[in-house]
Amino acid sequence: MSKKLISIVTGCYNEEGNIKELNNRIRKAMSQFPQYDYEIICIDNCSTDGTRAELSKICDNFKNFRAIFNVRNFGHIRSPWHAFLLAKGDAVIAMASDLEDPPELIPQMISKWEEGYTLALAVRTGTEEKGILPIARKAYYWLIKRLSDVDQISGFTGFGLYDKSAMDVFRSLNEPYPYVRGLITEMGWKRAEIPFFKPQRTRGFTKGNFMIYLDTALLGIVNHSRLPLRCATIMGLFVSGGSFFAGLYYMIHKLLAWNSFQAGVAPLIIGLFFLMGLLFLLLGLIGEYIGLIVTHVTKRPLVIEEKRINFNENPH
After folding, report:
1. Shortest CA distance to 144 belongs to which of 230, 235, 223, 231?
2. DSSP string for 192-220
3. Per residue in 91-118, is it b (16+ CB within 10 Å) or e — as a string?
4. Residue 137 and residue 124 in contact, taking contact as beta carbons nearer than 8 Å
5. Are the C-beta atoms of 219 and 77 separated by less than 8 Å?
6. Would you say 106 and 29 are in contact if contact means Cβ atoms under 8 Å apart?
7. Which of 12, 89, 159, 247 could share a disulfide with 122, CB 3.0–4.6 Å?
8. For residue 310, what is the DSSP state?
9. Under CATH, which number does the domain 4-131+154-207+301-309 receive?
């Protein structure tokens, strides 16, 4: 009888200093489960440092380490999602390659999976990070929980184990730009949550920036909430109503005191800028929803691969 297969999937971009340690720590964690075969799939999003050379060396030494090289950088969502869907394991573990997702949590995930949980998710309860970013994350989780039509998991970034049954559903959805955190709660699978304290990055630089965080935040909101559009409708009604009554007020005063009443241009300028700002905000919200629709309709490939390594080898 063949062993069950566990796939560990990670995406990387300019992680030359972390890939070797990541491989070693995953192998150490998986050594506790000789009853399973496993494979490690790493998709490189067109790194500009020595990451690809390091990946090639690891592939030469370990035939169950598989690498995918993209022809260009396809973004922080499409690239790892592509590799995630390629995994054929009975269980698939998704994680980051920067070691901020500790591989030492893998045994706990597998244990929860063996207990019958469809998902075993790592949830951050704290971080060694300083500054405004941790505060911004907490604010976002607070906001998304209140805006979303489904429950959301605070502190969950995608790091976790997914049973084959969940993977089959993910593949059937044909999501070109998914918000996985929302998908798993929308589906309602039985899940276990594993708390952990996020370690500080020790090598390299974080690839996250304002635009990446904003993209993820907006993706979560527009994928799982219609509340912004409803708020836009309500604001439109209030602004229209307010404008109507303000206009009526000025018209009555002007009729009653035609020669002495001077409204001036200040109310006109303030009202104009307020309405223009509101208009652009609403257009931006609508544009996010339309952009999501266009992404689903165009059906472009998630990534274009340059080459694969070790995908014809059997894991051992």
Report:
1. 223
2. EEEEEEEPPP-SS-----HHHHHHHHHHH
3. bbbbbbbbbbbbbebbebbbbbbeeebb
4. no
5. yes
6. yes
7. 159
8. S
9. 3.90.550.10
What is the DSSP secondary structure assignment for residue 163, as one 8-state letter? E
The verdict on pTM exceeding 0.85 is no
DSSP letter at 265?
A: S
Give the Cα separation of 16 and 76 in Å (integer): 17
Q: From 86, 40, 42, select the one nearest 67 (Cα to Cα).
A: 42
Cα(102)–Cα(92) distance, integer angstroms: 16
Question: E strands of 45-150, at which residues?
Answer: 65-70, 91-96, 119-127
**16-33 confidence digits (pLDDT tens):** 989 999 999 999 999 999
The pLDDT of residue 315 is 44
Question: Residue 97 carries which DSSP code?
Answer: S
